[in-house]
Amino acid sequence: MWIINGLKVLMVCYGHGHRIMTRQKMMKKNLSPVFIIPVHMAGVPANLGPLLTLAQEHGLYFIEDACQAVGGSYQGRPLGSFGEVGAFSLNFYKIIGTGEGGAAITSDRGIYDRIRMHHDTGVSFWGSDMPADTPVIPGVNYRMSELLGAFALVQLGRLDGFVENMRAIKKRVYGMLEGTPRPAPQNDPDGDCGTTLHFQFDSVDQATRFEERLREQGVSATRPINTGRHVYSNWEFVINKTNICDQGCSWDCPRYQGTATYAPDMCPNTLDILARTVGVSTDPFWTADQVNTLVDKVETAAQGK
Ligand SMILES: Cc1ncc(COP(=O)(O)O)c(C=O)c1O
To answer: What CATH number belongs to 23-101+144-303?
Structure first.
């Protein structure tokens, strides 16, 4: 959506959270960022502290993608509530689902009206509670039906219980591990949604063997490097600077003066970490016995038995 709307993406490589970009570096690269979009992947809160500082220092909008982390928090505050906008997905694969749909939150009246007009073009015709001087923008009509809204309200009531259970499972599994495999670092274990266990290894070989041994025991394990377009190097439309039409469109926009360049290997540290990590999804309905069995399997896989 960003690219269709003429915006350029600047990737921030994992592990560089504390030294993202200074203003001098931005100026040197002729970049003039407008907003930062932290993405809370796999239920794990992003390291928001340094990103918020950067946004404040440079007057950047802060838009949180909490689509995979509905119900999570960072330092006690709900994910999605830190900046101007928070986005949540309710599609089939997410922590709570309504089949399709999602939600965006903001405390800014102007942004609220733009979000409404964007997702429902009818608002600019019929939105009687919209201030008369609100500039009208075109929309895309991504309305969710009221029936799905009703599902969402019921699902919302189950959310805290799901997250509490999965968070507790994650803490238990991590707490039971001794030595190898190591739990991947977490930015806030108390705010983590617990949807995914991440095990980290020193080498890609070790991680691959561990993943295979878990699978042999019937545990569905995946290395994040193999999750297709979740990994930036597979965003061919960014790497190749293409768009929905074949003429470059937003990338060739004469108003864009920046020099953003992309390459599949531009964030080698990110790719290395994703390849050395093995993920296993949790389930809020797992019993204590099921968790113990999983820990046994994890240990067996780690020992190569
Ligand atoms: C991180 C992230 N952002 C955005 C989305 C888009 O959400 P939706 O499918 O509800 O449009 C998804 C999920 O598909 C996601 O995982």
So the answer is: 3.90.1150.10
